[in-house]
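FORM 7B: Structural annotation worksheet

SECTION A. Query
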Amino acid sequence: MGAAGMGAAPSCKKALCKVVVSNRFERLAEALGEHLFTGALFAQRVVLVPGASLKNRLLDALAKDPKWGIAAGMRFDSIEGFLSFSLEKTQEKKRLPSRWELSLLLEEEIACMEEKEREHPLLGYLNAMPQKKEGRIRSVARHLSALFLSYGLYGKGFLEEWLQKEGWKQELWKKIFRDRWTFPLESFQDLVLPPVHLFGFFSLPSLYRELFKKSASIFYLLSPSPFFLGDLLSDRETLYVEKRGRERKVSFPERREVEHYLKQPNRFLANFGKERRKLLSLLEDEEALVEERYAEPPEPQTLLKRVQADFYHLRNPEQELHGSLFDPTIQLHRAPSRYREVEILKENLLSFAKKGVALKEMAVLAPDLKSYLPYIEAVLGARENPLPFALFECKKRDAFSFAQGFLHLLSLRGSRFEKEEVLKLFSFPSFRKGCNMDPSDAECFCSWMRKSALLWGFDRTHRERILKGEEGSFLVRTGTWEWSFERLLFGLATLERTPFYFSLDLAPLPLVSLTEAELLGKGIDAIQRIYKATLEMEEKKLGFSEWVRFFSEMAGNFFLIKEEEKRFFLELERIGRKLFSSSSLDRKKVTAERMGCILKEFFQQKEESPISSNREVVSFHPLKEGSVPSVSVLFLLGMQEGAFPRTERKNPFLDPGFDIPSNLDEERNLFLEVLLLAKESLVISCSTSSDEEGGELMPSLFVQELFSHVEKGGEERERAIDSLFFQHPLFSFDASYFDEKSSFRSLSLSHFAAAKSYYLTPLREESSLFDQSEEEKKEQGDRRVSVQQLLKLARHPIQFFFNETLGIYFEKEEQEIREFTLSSYDKARLSRLDPCLPFDELVMQAEAKGELPLWHFREVAKAALEEEREVYKRGLEACGVDLKGLLTILLREDLQEPLEPLAGTLHLPALEAAMPDGRRVKIVGTLRGISLQGLLFHGRDKIEDLVKAWPAFLVFQCLSHPALEEKKLLLTKAGKVKSLSIQDPLLALGRYLSYLEESERRMSPFLPRFAEAFLRKDGADLQKRLASLEKEIAISGSDPYLEWLFAREKKRDAEGMISRWSLLLCEAMDVLL
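SECTION B. Predicted structure
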């Protein structure tokens, strides 16, 4: 019985290569150690592996074996790296390009082709859309580089015939591979190699196989069975044979013989081991010595062991003699989301650890590991039961922050210098350190800039360049970085906050204290240097090497970079010298945009070296060749349909007649390797939800085939297979996780606490959001309330609850709008500023603060503002207001006696009011619009306007001062003076404060437009107004608080709202009835 039929020694005198086969990684590693260290002590020892992760595991295995001690001259490499190195030693003129290098060479040749040949067929596609031309050139070059590499490696028999034809692809090929560059089929034919060790490959191109055969190399192959595998046929191969038999109309005896031949001893192995058995068969046909190191499995006691034993003995499940075993050594977990999938992974990791499995004996593999990184870091790094983990051949999100930050800096070249795009640089740690800022410094500086009315553009000149040289009064510098810096510096230099402007185009912004001046200086210096660097990039045209040196210097100026990151630029410069030393790309001056794309691709193709796996951590690996470790428990994460096998896209430039090896067969072998290397358990999980498509996702086809294979053998197996499936609920605190009879139990205390809170709390009838209360927010003693809080409650009680009770502030989209429009709020506020102030001066002040739109929109806003201001002035005249006597009252807690009016402001002691329960409340803050004739309010004589003014009017009524003799309400929008008789203003204010406290405990529905329905207790009217407002908000989307409310508040019981709130409201506002 030989490995793959290769047990007998070859007939030739001297074997050209040796093949070591085993079904255990440890035995292959042991054989590698024996073959490596049996020769001379200082002999060169080269081990070729498919991935850096496998190299790491082999080093660990050799280091732990006491037989080998210290070995010198050992070198691990990839096949491509080793062959390129060997080629460079024997050939001085030609070398092999990588895919990235070949893509750059093709870009340059395509660009040169365009300059020389105007009628080239490729140019029609490239020039169809001039604005996308450079991107199309890069896309064509990327596809061609992959195609040319495949032709140069797999094109034996095809390439010679293809090159005899005429075409633009052949023309590019001949230009690239004429003098300095070569390809494997050309350069490896006569290459002489020393003996090497090839470990862990399950497929090899025929060119590589022949090359290493001649060098007496040693292959170490993982093989599932010592029996002959060459006659196994996959389902597709079986169908082909059957089809050919029908076409040839073979006789019945021959057909019976073929059917017997096609009956597979293990169909799963036949389908999933095609590439592996193909390599073994080819090595059998060639001369090779075979060394078998199989470990015959003992009588299997678990399902996973049974599957592995089926592979070893080449038998189907139904051929077993000892019954079937179904235990959780193979599991499938289906989760409703990726986050829940990682939560389930953590529960499984903790469960195995509790059973005594070491963390280093558990490994997680995922086809798309990067998409799971945020969830892995959040869940495994959580405060409860944190699990140490290590990522292999995959960068953490914060890794290479320098590369991400530097590429973002390059993206600012030629941009509008938008506020958030520039401030994003301060989110990169390496950039902050380069500016000598810690995270709190950067956050503080960014906060200043966001409050400075900054929009975009560094200065006026920059805006002119962006807008193609447009000049004139419409092109202002308001909202630029330079303008914002001057506002902050002006505010820093202004000791007192006096409203003077010195006819400048900016107003002081007093945000920065003297102790923070140095931080402001650092931030301004960083932004100025960034802008200067982007200008240099925009203006320069350099050769490749010059750009690399320029970028290297620029990185050192802005970032604190590590030695490892400095080597990027050194390596890029070295590649450039080899790549373009005689190319026009180094002599030709290219733009920064082109170089930025090159640099981006260079950073992306660099991989982080894996760390050693000998620490006690859970290891995470991308699911690819050479990355599958041999550990006790293997987890497969993200095994839903579409994720694995990965979707294979056909190269659009592929020529007919050339057959590129399929990724599907390679991924089948990869899945088989996972089954072979899992020692004790295999846990598979998948997400049922898709980010892109609707509907439920099924497990991967490979997973379905595995369970279909396992359940063969009768109804008993089909019933038992259900115990291996786990369909998980939406929430991690679901009751099923804490049931003693559950097959999957949670170990999380926080999830258990959440479950108790959710399930043990008595069920209540679904209630309205207006009924839910926040008891802990209720004040029990004396307190302070500001005038602003009272006005916010009167105008928008729902926003008041979110802001004051929950501390939630919905962001508004005013930043984008302010460049083009003047919001209703700003228009109303500006129109009511000091009516004695000339309109031109009002506009100048608004512009100095960045409150007006830009460009031509500024004139439209000015016209609308002037019209609104005239309406306000006419209302004042109709009310008989003396404009010279207008005051602003400031209620101060630190005053005991009133101060004399200063600059139109009257400083008074805080107003004290009594609550109905006797508690004292101090009213502080600013009350605007006070005239000798009464309190100004820009509204009409309607109840929905009166409720907005009511708390301010109550406070005004309670104040005592000689300047406040008239206690009337002046409705400026209606031009009407209204007298409201309040017998005891302090008592009325106390009742309103009771309403305020109740509105803090639970959300009040008393919006001004509902006032009449509430006060008149008209439920039908309120129901109509609720429906009308919902439609209005759905169309306009103008109020994020109401938008949120209507999206979640399903129970709108108008009568219930009135019964709960009308008594309190009528007590607080009875005069308005």
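SECTION C. Observations
Confidence is low (pLDDT under 50) at residues 1-13, 609-613. The longest helix spans residues 517-539.

SECTION D. Sign-off
Analyst initials: ____
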